[in-house]
Amino acid sequence: MKSKLLSNLEILDYVRNHNFFKDSDNLKCIEIGDGNINYVFKVSDNNSGKSIIVKQSDVYLRSSGRPLDINRSEIEYNALISQYKNYPGSVPKVYFYDKERSVIIMEDISSYKNLRKELKKGNIYNHLSDSLSEFLKRTLIPMTDYVLSRKEKKLNVKKFINPDLCDITEDLVLTEPYFNYKDRNIINKDLIKYVEQNIYEDKKLICEVLKLKDNFQSNSQALIHGDLHTGSIFVNENGIKVIDPEFSFYGPMGYDIGNVWGNISFALANSLILKDKRKNALNKLLEETIDMTIFKLYDAYDKYIKNEYFKNELFKQTYISEVIADSFGYAGTEIIRRDIGDSKVEEITSLKDRDKRKKLDILLINFGKYLILNRYKIKYGKEVVDYINNL
Questions:
Q1: Are residues 257 and 188 in the same domain?
Q2: How many structural domains are present in the chain?
Q3: Which of 17, 94, 174, 253 is a good FRET partner for 9, with 20 to 30 A between their CA atoms?
């Protein structure tokens, strides 16, 4: 049964009834969401300038009408609460949750700007590598078995079971780009043979992707955001705000980390093909974000894990090394799926010149493969930056 979606006028009545504004006579409501899954509105008071965000989930995708588990709204709410607790201010503050209507009312982050668009413009904030790595440090390891009690961790795994949205990732990210069984991949006709030879027919690559897929499906390591691309990260001079954790579940930490690294790589690859002035700053951002994340993973292990049994140095090295390898691997799968799959990013689609687009596609395919196939060998950000610059 379709849920009762609120209209703009009904949302105004809804926030008035819940007393979010002292003066409710001069409120306005506009829809600001451009996504495919939820409805997002901004309600503001013309007099005071105060504003809030109202987000409502439906049981169907907006574009196709495909059914989607409405429980994702509660998962998003619980994820935001968890992330805010572990790293206050890094996500929008939640003011109210209505489970019956699948409505979340939260902080308006209009003073922050979409990171994907900012990187495209060359607006690279000095704090960015530190802020991104700090978010990963403070939201991932604290949600593992080594910090939480065994019972609390298992109850969390149960609370964040997210089959429908995990299925989207397992298909669109970790299956279809390598096995086009639904015929939904979007590949320029100039590159069809190249993709067939270098992706579909590369048995070694597919074996490694299957390992990463198996890890994604079976490794309930920590509570992850699950869709941590640069379109879900907002930034200004003061820091970052991370939104939309509706894909959250207990999975491998490297998936979140790799998504961050992979999405910075799109801006860098775009800059390399265009040969513009962003190159040096984006090289630095990618290298520093990788290196700072790795350093902070070790630091987080020492800071948050108190049980002496887990302080075995050999185990720590093995554990973090596996997370780092996962991160490089999932960065590669994010890069390849955005280039070959049907969910593109602006850094790719904005290139209208046919020759430049072909060069970008080939660069991204080869870079993604490098990260997947060499994920256990790569140790530093400079190795990654040097490789992409020499493609």
A1: yes
A2: 2
A3: 94
SS (H, E, C) the chain: CCCCCCCHHHHHHHHHHCCCCCCCCCEEEEECCCCCCEEEEEEEECCCCCEEEEEEECCECCCCCCECCCCHHHHHHHHHHHHHHHCCCCCCCEEEEECCCCEEEEECCCCCEEHHHHHHHCCCCCCHHHHHHHHHHHHCHHHCCCCCCHHHHHHHHHHCCCHHHHHHHHHHCCCCCCCCCCCCCCCCHHHHHHHHHHHHCCHHHHHHHHHHHHHHHHCCCEEECCCCCHHHEEEECCEEEECCCCCCEEECHHHHHHHHHHHHHHHHHHHHHHCCCCHHHHHHHHHHHHHHHHHHHHHHHHHHCCCHHHHCHHHHHHHHHHHHHHHHHHHHHHHHHHHHCCCCCHHHHCCCCHHHHHHHHHHHHHHHHHHHHCCCCCCCHHHHHHHHHCC
pLDDT at residue 68 in the model: 86
Does residue 1 fall inside a structural domain? no
Q: Are residues 74 and 159 in the same domain?
A: no
**263-319, pLDDT tens digit by residue?**
999 999 999 999 999 999 999 999 999 999 999 999 999 999 999 999 999 999 999
